[in-house]
Amino acid sequence: MNRKDFIELMAANGAAMATVPLLGFPESIGFHPWKENQGFSADVVIAGGGLGGCAAALAALRNNLRVTLTEETDWIGGQITQQGVPPDEHGWIETHGATRSYRDFRNAVRDYYRRHYPMTEAARTREFLNPGDATGSRRMSHEPHVALAVLQGLFAHYISSGQLTLLVNCKCTDAGVTGDEVRELKAVHRHTGKEIILSAPYFVDATELGDLLPLTGTEFVTGKESQAETGELHAPGKPNPDSHQAFTWCFAMDYVPGANHITDRPENYSYWRNFVPRMTPPYSGKLLDLRYSDPKTLEPRALGFHPKGIQTGNRLNLWNYRRIIHKKNFITGTYSGDTTVVNWPQNDYFLGNLTGEEKFAKHGERARQLSLSLFYWLQTEVPRPDGGQGWPGLRLRGDLLGTGHGLAKYPYIRESRRIKAVFTILEEHVGEANRALVAGKRSAGHAARFDDSVGIGYYHIDLHPSSGGDNYIDFNSLPFQVPLGALLPQRMKNLLPANKNIGTTHITNGCYRVHPVEWSIGEAVGMLVAYAQGKQISPHAVREKEQTLHDFQDFLQSQGIDIRWPD
Q1: Distance (Å) of CA 503 to CA 372, 422, 438, 487
Q2: 212/205 Cα distance (integer angstroms)
Q3: Nearest-angstrom CA–CA distance, 24 and 159
Q4: pLDDT < 70 positions in the chain
């Protein structure tokens, strides 16, 4: 089964109407049909409607470019919507460490709740409203379909005016390339099979797996580099291109006390119920268990689970970890209980990666079976504090994810193909310990300072277990910058990355892969295209002359993109 057929199957198994109307694709809103071999031309074609793709599109649009944006599912928003993952953010996010437009987006999500939900006065008037009060997304956790509604609202007038062509259910499958430049992309509608040609002077790969890189012949790397290649403190002795961070097929659930919502036993339940990961260093035991390997120490760590959100001793209650609705924030009677998203160690999938049609189909289906098995285990076997087993009142909430099968539309991707870049971000640039070894006292507790910075971000270096058999790799980083050189392919002149496919290593991808950093990367790329188009120069030329680079950085800062952390 190829990737197209696999996603078709997911749609057929869980065809459900989205919570909010979909915009932009003519067939979905009743305008003219999409004709075979019809072409669209624009100033920039962006493949992939995740956070990086959306941010790139918004930046290009507000700077008067015409944009074609494709998305292979029917939801834009990537990890925050179709993948069901509440934001992973640092502690300064409300004031700095992200772009102004990202904070505006977050506040628009809060305002959506204030306008449309029956919230308590205390919650409604809270400056930094957090609908889910999650312990894992401490600054803000919310329902995926609300983020979708906000993003659609940001694009609505651009679609109406014709400045933006948004093509959902659309995947790029081929490319026309001449020398070092992409001329056009061929995209296929995943339901009808009809093809379309997309042309532009610039192309952006904002796909979740770096799909345009092999299509266009752009040089890229995958998996782990060796210490001999990068000199990184935490790099292994041998490279392994097939070793990628785990991905996760998330799902949402709530709890109805006294009800029996036990699902059919998944076909692979016995396998996953008894599965013990083989890792170095060793994992804590069975995967479906209330223990896992502590990411920092790798020692077994006990967890708790109670779907009423109550304390479970000194153990983290997994129910609260990615909670997206905390009923206490809403008027009494609105919700009988809380709602949470399951993005836990227990449904991390690390038996293979997704780069390739056959791999995507095989490992995607196995990851779905793992998540369904985890849910069934929670309903029937997980130990309860009272000594019993299972919580039959647990209920899948696929309606909040736009599906009928209960799982997210798309797996949560942590690692993709990465361009061979003009400049590669290494652990010595952003890792606290490696930075100290290289820079000594000169580091002064800060990450490397890049003269060509086009953004900033922060997250600790967080590598989940890998398909190469590594256990967690988790250690401190420093507030970092996004260098322009990491956004420029070594050879290709008009293709730019805007997701997890920038010039990082396997190690440094672990801190550049989260929500606000992906947005910042995408926004910088959208503005880079606008600037290069306006100056009639190549994106690479922006970096080559000091005055041009400074002019571009002033352009970024004028639109709310910080390029340096405050002292």
Answers
A1: 35, 8, 20, 6
A2: 6
A3: 6
A4: 1-38, 441-444
